[in-house]
Design brief:
The complex is a heterodimer of chains A (about 120) and B (about 220). Chain A is an all-alpha fold. Chain A is built from two helices and no strands. Chain A is rod-shaped, with a radius of gyration of 50 Å. The N and C termini of chain A lie far apart (about 165 Å). Chain B has about 220 residues and is mainly α. In chain B, helix 1 packs antiparallel against helix 7 and helix 2 packs across helix 5. Classes of the chains: A mainly alpha (about 120), B mainly alpha (about 220).
Chain lengths: ~120, ~220
């Protein structure tokens, strides 16, 4: 009976020892991961800091691209409306100018006719 | 003025009211989209300009041969219309070009020759305005030169590589695009005729005024 109790104690101690070993390995692995992570992050952060563009100053040059983004393209509707508006503006401006010139000539004809008629009467 | 003038004005007003309905109903062009609708005013304005150029040229020939002052009056009236309709074409063209080609103006044969034709008639009007006595004969020769420039302007797209489409583009239009185009063209040609009548009347009235001044001096 006493021997059985001692054997059970020994097994428990062995199990405890194994658990402690596993725990120790886990702690070591966790520390290793943290160190690795820091080792990766620190240089990349430093690199990113180096890569940051300087504050926007005057543009050095234009970079050509083949096609515009659709949202950046010139809208067609204002151009179409402008074209039609210009056509009408030109036509109406010309009609107005013709009208004014005709009015002026008609007024002059009336005036000179009156003078010619009064001269003929004399 | 002719009794037909009010009738012509009414018909033209109706046509210009209905033309936008047809133009809006016309299908979009596959590559240019909405901006291609400028075509329905751009092309007719050039056709009206060409009509005015031919009238100015033919009247100038008549004036040079017969020394008929009525022909000269018609030539002056037509030359002014060349400048008016040419201005519409030269303004609507770049508005189309900036979207279709990405540039306002390209020195291609069609655009350049059309600009030269327009400038010839600007020169004609300047000559008439500031040329002094006898300038009408010199101006008539300028108009004749302008008239001979028209075929060159029209076929320039077929003769040289240019950004403008070839002349076949008009004849190959489907009915849905051709109907509004020819309707607009008819309206523009009618407008050119009406304006020509009005402008010629102004020249005739000026001639009458000159006669009255001569009578007053006598």
């Amino acid at each position: 009976m006493q021997r059985k109790t001692q054997k059970a104690k020994g097994r428990r101690q062995k199990a405890e020892g194994r658990r402690q070993k596993v725990e120790g390995r886990r702690q070591k692995a966790a520390i290793l991961w943290v160190v690795l992570l820091i080792a990766m992050l620190v240089p990349s952060a430093a690199f990113a800091q180096q890569q940051q563009p300087p504050k926007p100053a005057a543009q050095d040059g234009f970079v050509p691209i083949d096609q515009l983004q659709p949202k950046e393209e010139l809208p067609a509707a204002p151009l179409v409306m402008a074209a039609y508006a210009v056509a009408w503006l030109v036509v109406f401006a010309y009609i107005w100018s013709l009208w004014k010139r005709l009015q002026k000539v008609e007024a002059e004809i009336a005036d000179v006719s009156r003078r010619v008629a009064s001269g003929a009467r004399r | 003025m002719s009794k037909s003038f009010p009738v012509l004005t009414l018909i033209l007003a109706g046509m210009f009211v209905y033309a936008p309905v047809l133009i809006v109903g016309a299908p979009y062009e596959s590559t240019m989209g909405l901006v291609q609708k400028i075509f329905y005013f751009h092309f007719p304005s050039w056709m009206a300009m060409f009509l005015a150029v031919f009238v100015a040229g033919a009247a100038s020939v008549a004036f040079l041969v017969r020394r008929n002052p009525r022909a000269d009056a018609l030539a002056v009236a037509a030359a002014e219309l060349v400048v008016v309709f040419g201005a519409i074409g030269l303004i609507t063209g770049p508005l189309w070009g900036i979207k279709a080609w990405g540039v306002w103006w390209s020195w291609d044969p069609r655009g350049t020759s059309a600009l030269v034709l327009w400038l010839i008639f600007i020169a004609y009007l300047l000559l008439r305005r500031f040329g002094g006595p006898g300038s009408e004969r010199l101006a008539a020769a300028v108009a004749l030169f302008g008239m001979f420039n028209v075929p060159f302007v029209y076929w320039s797209v077929n003769l040289w590589r240019t950004l403008h489409p070839k002349t076949t583009v008009v004849s190959s239009l489907p009915v849905s695009m051709g109907a509004p185009l020819w309707f607009s063209t008819a309206a523009f040609l009618g407008l050119a005729v009406a304006l020509l009548m009005l402008r010629t009347r102004l020249e005739h009235r000026r001639a009458e005024l000159d006669q009255l001044f001569l009578a007053l001096e006598d």
